[in-house]
Amino acid sequence: MLIRHTPVLAALTQLSCPVQVFPHAGIQQLTHTHTPAASMPDEKMDETKKKKKKTAECCGYPISIFFIVVNEFCERFSYYGMRAVLVLYFRYFLLWDDDLATSIYHAFVALCYLTPILGAIIADSWLGKFKTIIYLSIVYAIGQVTMAVSTIHDITDSNRDGTPDNFTFHIALSMLGLILIALGTGGIKPCVAAFGGDQFQEHQSRQLNTFFSVFYLCINAGSLLSTLITPVLRAQECGIHTQQQCYPLAFGVPAVLMVISLVVFIAGSGMYVKTDPEGNIMWSVCKCIGFAIRNRFRHRSSSYPKREHWMDWADEKYDKLLIAQIKMVLKVLFLYIPLPMFWTLFDQKGSRWTLQATTMSGDFGGFILQPDQMQTVNPILILTMVPIMDRLIFPLIQKCGLNFSPLKRMTVGMLFAATAFVSAALVQIEIDKTLPNFPSSSESQLKVVNMYSTTLNVTISPSEHLLIESYGSSADYITFDHQDITVSLNTSNVITKAFSLIKGGRQTLIIPSDPTVMYLVEDTKSKPREGKNAIRFVNGWTADLNITNLDSIEPSATTNYTLVNQGKRDFVLRHGEQWCEFSRKFGFGASYTFLITEAVFSSDCESIVEVEDMKPNSVHMALQIPQYFLITTGEVMFSVTGLQFSYSQAPKNMKSVLQAGWLCTNAVGNIIVLIVAEIGKLPKQWAEYVLFASLLVAVSIIFSIMAYFYTYIDPAEIEAQIRKEQGLEPEEKEKEKETLEMEEKDQKNEQGVKQTKI
Ligand SMILES: CC(C)C[C@H](NC(=O)[C@@H](N)Cc1ccccc1)C(=O)O
Q: In which residue ranges is the amino acid composition biased (Basic and acidic residues) (predicted)?
């Protein structure tokens, strides 16, 4: 047997399924070596022999794909694990604001889906898929390690206060890490899927389709586990001098997984079918297209007979086979034009839908779901739906005699994504009913809190009259369409004071025990982020107070808002020897002002009064499940099918290029999200969802028309046909001849070795 018996293969051969070796499978990687082996110089022959491999099979599948799917699992764990904590790292380690953090995050994601072009060019034109995956995986692993190192705050924390002293160092290192990661993850992405496809032979087309589904399952299993695990690692505390959130662990584990991914891929190297690159194919493609355009222009006069396709104008100079291959690729790339719109909607799961979840309640009884954890519903659904679709739905549709072709599936996938956004809009309408009535940009809102010892008559010019009891507040915010107000209090003598309110803001007027010093504080005018609760205290006690996790608070003063998570929270209030514990259970997304009374210690904190500035979220996060279900159904139909389609419709030497083109549609989709987020602000969120849904419906109609005119091809058959027309030997024959010759040479060599041993 010619196959090398690695320990892993030996283990695999112990499996219950029969392992077969197909000698003819090695033919594939000789596809592009047109020089007959017999006429090759010895050196070249050895080189080719090294690449020649015969495929071992298990249950009809090449064993080599085991290494490829495990590699993909680890790589996706690494990528999504790092991505899960990236925004938090920007926000709370590098201390960037929300806008900068989200912009850099989306720019990074877009870069990750642009670099596949580079990877595909390197693979198809220069190194071949195998070497490209190895080299770029090394770059990727270095990037992950660089990123993990950049998160060690102790490196620059010379004063040991827990925060880095040299932010430039951390920013530079993390940006370098991210660039390397984007280069690595994007570069290998089109190669791994296409390399997996290359392992299959012609008689394994059914297994090839299953492979793409299993490949997709591995992506989602890896991403699911990592998005659950890395946030937990981040929440740990670690450090050399001071204990901080453990970003090095949260980024370090993905780095380790990337190294494992590389090791697994290399472990399988003895078993892969490796197709050689055909020289600089991309350069030839560009030159050929350029020539066709120039030649067409030169012959623009109507006296020249028309040609069937504009690429046929390259006929004079370029090989028919190359022209045919370019036509195949261009046809598919043209079909890709409307596809970014799907990703524009799809990628809003991580942004708009997560923000929507922050205005909802995640209390599922037995467990609490954080808004950003809602995203894990997507990989969970993928893991259940891909097998159901593959084994049940698609075969059932086929049995009903319906022709559910790949392009039809993709169109239906788009329509599912559009309905997901309609569902999101309906949920948004429900949420909007429960949201506070925030001021418009020209309005101002005011609430009044009375910390005075008796009930007060408050007049706000010109026409608001309020009666507020001691340690009470006005029922709700009063909205003004002007900013200048005068407040009069009817105490033993009338106290009058003028204020200027913030345009578009919400404020509270605090009337302390000495009403003459009444003052305004600014309130939150949006739901607290991440479903947290914003709380603050007003000190009605006669002296300074210490409250756990808050600064000391002077008499009559108000603390800034502090964000607290959902659940029961305890606060210890202390003044000298006196103390009491204040406990409160919080929901999601509320805001409170707690009024500390004079009787705080004598009542054991029981007298603290709660003023609800913003109601907790009442619409349940479970209502988002239908939209997740719809978008994931859309993803299975669109994305898994698109992956298979891009592979099957590409000529052999341009498979990675088409995979990259497919991934590029995702990059463009992400860029559209970035642009829309910056410029297209509709006043109502639900209207934006409906707009996106309508756009996708329009795009899917255009796509279905384009798909109607698309004829599915078998690139291998077309290539064989052209070879025949050109009088070239059919590829298979040529390859078989080469294989036989090499096997003969192998045998001779083996005999030679035996004789030498004897
Ligand atoms: C969509 C990508 C181009 C393809 C694929 N992504 C997925 O399969 C997503 N379902 C994974 C995911 C996981 C967690 C949260 C959101 C999405 C990929 O990454 O290759």
A: 724-751
